[in-house]
Amino acid sequence: MSKRLALAVVFPLALAGMSPAAAAVKASDVIQRAIDGFVRPAYSGLHDHAVSLTKAVRTLCEAPSQQGLDAARGEFSATVEAWSKAEIIGFGPIKENNRLERMLYWPDRKSIGLKQVQAALSDKDPTAIDPVLLAGKSVAMQGLGALEFLLFGDGADALTGKDDAYRCAYGAAIAGNIETMAGDVSDAWNKPDGFAALWANPGPQNALYRDGTEAVTELVGVFINELEMVRDIRLKGFLGGKPEADKPKQAIYWRSQNTARSLAGNLSGVDTLFEASKLGDALQPDNSWMAESIHIQLVNGVSTAQSVKGPIDKVLADPAQRAKLEHFALISSSLSTLFGTRLTTEFGLTAGFSSLDGD
Of the residues 157, 218, 251, 312, which has the fewest C-beta atoms closer than 10 A? Predict the structure, then answer.
């Protein structure tokens, strides 16, 4: 069984069991709106940022300077934000060829990626500075985590001069690799006979989605799984029950100060996807408040995360800033209830195992 939310559902292609108006909402229409209104723009936007990132890193390599390093770092942060929105669609083309893990190997609790990157720097491994060869190496060496260390980690200041050309070349190879993957995924979602067509056109002859129930299950699973991942893996991975239990260096993107930006991007992606799909239109009139409540809480979650500023260790040491992260956790828990209990009950869905628990 695949590692994604399993839902037992009772409605067929049209979202049945609703009011006459809501029953007219077809699963295939919901999915097509999700694809056109979120998935394709999100991965296209990621590719655009990845192109700019590659250009900035290559420019830095050609003419090392503090200004060039600042520009590369800025493009990295913008790419992280774009990826944080797109990564909620963690199935389909991004799962092929290990792209998901190659794009972001995290969490890396044993510092496998860090050790491999440091070894490449120490040995000046020639295969790590060739984007094609790099693509075939360890997933931990070729994604955003590895590039973050090169641009922001120990020794990164050397990128402002000509003394560490290898480090910059390695960074350029990673950026090029990220650009290629983002482009390939974007192209795959835009193919007229590709994965998007399978998801949006469920049927008996469809190998992946036999009916509208299965197609919508995939969509609802995105919301439930993403909220759980953001709260329980991304946030609680470093935010302890008490300040003394905090682990700032377990936070994603802590070196580049993009932890909160990533959390905001995740919830922004969820909100945009939910609004684009218009899944809420299938709710009965007396329960339509759920859709508005979901949107409002997602907006609040995004703004709360965006208000968290500075290095994550300083954030955690500041009671007012730390309280914002705790508030973010409460918002995500409330959203999990709305999606995982209230919305699924309304649609006749019963949540099974979580994608985060394994099989």
Answer: 157
